[in-house]
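Batch 3, record 17
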Amino acid sequence: MAKFFDKLFPRSAILVLVLLTLGAVVGFAVVGHLVTRYNANQQARGRRLYAQGLADLTSGNPNKALEELRAAVTCDRSNSQYQLSLGRALRDTGRLDEAESYLESLWQRTPEDGTINLALARVAARRGSINDALRYYHNAMYGIWPSDADGNRRKAQMELIEFLLQKNDLAEARSELMALAASLPLNPTLELRTAELMEQAQDYSDALAECERVLHIDHANPAALAGAGETAYRAGRYRTAQRYLQVAVNANPKDANLRDLLASTNTILQTNPFARRISDAERNRRLATAFEDAGQRLSSCAQQKGISLTFVKPAASSLSPPPGSAPPLASLQSRWLATKPDLRRLRYAEENDLPDVIMDLVFTIEQQTAQDCGEPQDVNHALLLIARDRDTADQ
Amino acid sequence: MNDIIPGSNPVTPASAQPVRLFAPRRLFEAFEGVFDEESFFLILSVFIGIFSGLAVVCFRIAIDWTHLWLLGPFPPVHNWRILAVPSIVGLVVAVLVMHLFPAIRGSGVNQTKAALYIFNGYIPFRTAIGKFLCAALAIGSGQSLGPEDPSLQIGASLASALGRQLKLSREKLRLMAPVGAAAGLAAAFNAPISAVLFVIEEVIGRWSAGILGSVVLSAVASVVVERWFLGSEPIFRIPVTAFKQPAELIAYMVLGIVGGVAAVIFAKAIVFLRPRLKAMPRWTQYFQPAIAGLLIGLIGYFGFPQVMGAGYDYMDQAMHGQYVWQLLATLAALKIVATTLSFVSGTPGGMFAPALFVGAMLGGAVGGIEHLLFPHLVGSTGTYALVGMGVLFAGFLRAPMTSVFMVLEVSGNYEIIVPVIVANTFAYLVSRSLEPIPIFDLLTRQDGLVLPSLEEEREEAILRVEDAMLPAPPIILSAADYIDAAERRIENAAQIVFPVRLQPSGWGVITREQIERRFKEGKGDHTIGSLIPAQPLPSLYPDLPLDSALRFVQSCPIVPVVNRANPQKLEGIVSSQSVFAKYAPPRPD
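Prediction for the assembled complex:
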C-alpha cells in the first residue's frame, strides 16, 4: 500500500500544492456537509427545547425552563431569540450577571435593537443602576422595533419614568414626562396613565392639563374627572378641584376617596379668607374664625407636647418674637396673644395689611403645629393647605 | 511499557522510524528552482493548519453528538443512565486502546514531545484515528477529560503523516509534529496565541525562532477554519470584569497561593496513582476506565453532574456568579478527584479543560469567600473565576506565559492583566516550590523517557563568554609597530602572548618567542603585521554563550573578547584553560 502511494505521489512542487489545495477543498466540502447536517439537527433540537422552555416559563416552572432554554442556546448559539428569552428568564429569576452577559452579547451584535435594549434596561433597573438603565431605556426608546415601534417606544419610556419615580429621581422623571406628553396620540388611556405618572412626579399642573385634554374629548370620562379633581386638589387649585370633584362624586357617589377630597375642598373654599367675590364682613368673619381655630390648635398641641402656655405674656408686637429663647409654641402663643386685640380693627377699611398679618400668624401656627403634633384635621387642615397654596387656592 | 509508543524501546528509536523517511527520491530534488525547503515548509504549515482545523471541527462535533446520544441534553441526575454510560463506554474504550490503538493513552502532549525528540517526528496516522474515536467516546460519555490535548495530538499526527508522505528532510519532519500540535490546540481552544505559546513551552520545550513562523501560521490557519464552521463565538461568555483597586491584588495573591497548592495536590494525586494502576495485572486495565467511569457517574448521580465531561458550560455559569462559594469549592475538589480517576485509568483525553474547570471553580470559591470577608475590597466572583482558570494553568501545567495569554485571549479584556499576572506568578512559584518537576515531565519520567523542558532550561545557569573572560593584558601591540620597538616594550614584561590590533580592523595574536626570534634574525625593521596572518582572528563578544568560545580556543592560545559597539576596544581575552575551568565540576570543599 505504501509503495502504491509512493508511486502515485507526484514529484512536482506545483502539483503537490495543487493536490493539497484540492484536498483542502474536498475537506471543506465534506466537513461543510457534516456541519450543515449537524447544525440542522441541533437547530431542530433547539426549537423543541425552546418551545418546552417557554411552556415551562408560562406554567411557572422557571428552573426547568432555564435548563431547557440554556440547552436550546447550546444547540443554536446564533439564535438571538433563544438568547433573548434565556436572558429574560435569567433576569426574572434574579440571575442578573448571567442575564446581562447573554443580553450584552446580543447587544454587541445589534446595538440598535429596541427589544434587547429594553431587556438590558430592565436588568440595569433590577440592579438599581440608574445610569445604565437610562442609557438602555433611551436606546430602546430610539431603537428599532420589529413592529408597533411607537407603542413599544412609549412603553419603554413609561417604564423608564416608573423606574425613575421608584428611585425618587423626580426631576429626571418630569423631563421624561414632558417629552412623553408631547408625543402622545389622542388616547384617553395613555393620557390618563401619563397624568397619573405626572401626579406621582408631583407635576400636578401638567397632570391636570392631561386630564383636561381627555375631558375635552370625553367630558364625562369618570377617570378623567376624578383625575382632574385630584390633581387640581394636589396643585392647590381648589375651586377647579371642587368643580371636577363635584361631577366625579355625582357620577360615582360610592367613591369614598373622592367624597373626602370634595369635603376637604369645600372646607378650604369656605375657610379661605382670601377668596374673591366674598363680602368684607364674610372675610372678617373667616379671619376671626381662622384666628380662633389657630389659637385652639396651638393650645391643644402645646398640651399634647406637655408645654404650659398659661403664663405666656403677649409679645411687644404681633410680628416680633418674645425676648429670650422661648420654645416655638410659646413664642407663637405670645404672638397670638399680642395679635388678638387687633381683630377688632378689622372692621376699619384703612387696615389694609391687618388681614395679611393675621393670616401669616395663622399659617405659621398651623405649620409649626403640623410639624410638632402631626397633620391636623378639618378646618386646621384646610388652613394648613391654604397656607401652602395661598396664591392658587381660589383658582 | 510506556504510554508513548507501546512496545518500543525509547533508547533505540530507529525501530519506530519509517523506512521511507530516508528514501532517496526526496521531494525537494524536484523542487529545486521552484521553492527552497524553508518556503515550502511555511506553505505546508498553512495546509497543516487547514487539515488540523477540519479534523478538530469533526472531533468537536463527534464529542457533542456522542454526549447527546449517550447522556441527552440535560445531565440525567439520579438516573441509572449516568452510572451505566461512562462505565460501559469505559469498557469499550479500554478494549479499543489495548487492542487497536495502544499509543493513545493519556493526554497526547508527551507523545507529541517524544515524537519530536526521540522518534524524528514520527507519529503513526493510526494515533489520530484512535485518539479521535476513543477521546470522543470517553469525553462524550462523561469521563472528566478535555478535548484540547487530544486535538493537539490529532493535529500532530496528521502533520507527521503528511510530512512523511512528502518525504521531507529529517530536520523538517521533526518539526512537523509541533506545527500540527499548535494547529490542533489552536482550533480546539479557539485561541491561536495561547496555542503557540503552549507548544513552545510544553511540546518544543525551548525557545526556537526557526520554527515560530510555521507554528504561528498553522495555528492561525486552523483557527480560521474552526471559526468558519463553528462560528466565532468564544467558548465562554466573559463576565463584566473589573479590577477595583490596587489593594485587591492581595486578594488575587491569595487566589494564586490557594491555586498553587491545589495544583500540586492535583499533580501529586495523578503521579502517585498512575504508576500503581499501570503496574496492576494487564487484565485489570480492561476495567480501569470502566471503574473510573462508574465512580465519576456516582459523583454525577449524587448531584454533581458538572464534573462530567469537559464542563465548559459550567465554567461559564461559574463565571456569571451562578454558584455559591461552597458549591464552587466542592466542584473544584470533585473535579480533581474525577479527572485523576479518568486520567490514571488510561482513558484517552486531555487535562487542559479539567485544569481550567478546577481553576474557575476554585477562583470563584476564593473570590466568594474574600467577598464575604472584605466586600469593599473584592469585585465580582466572575472575575476571580476567570483569573482562577489561568492560576491552575500556571500551577498545574507550569506554563506561566501561556496561562497569562490564555486568560487575556479568552476574555479579550486587558484590564485584568495585572491580577492575572500576580495570581499566576504566585501559583507558579508556590507550585514550583512544593513540586519542582512539572506534571508532564513527571509523567514522561514515569514512562522512562527524558525530554527537554523549558522548566529545566529556566533552572539552568547559562555560561557566557564574560564568565570565562580574563582581563585585557597590559601590553597590546599594533600591526604597524616595528619589531625592535615591540621587543623593547615586551622586554621586561611577564606576558607571553600579545594581542595585536590589526588595521583597519580585527585582532591577531603573536607570542614573545615569535617577536624575539625575528628580532634576533635582524628583522627589527619589519612590522608586527608581517609576522601574523592577514586573516584576523575570530573575536568574541562578552554576552555570547561560552559554547561559542569552544570552537576557537583549541586552535588559538588566546581569543580576544571585544566590545560590540567598538570592536577595536579589547574587553578581555579567553583561553582554553579559562574556558575549560568554567565547565569543570565544582570542587567539593
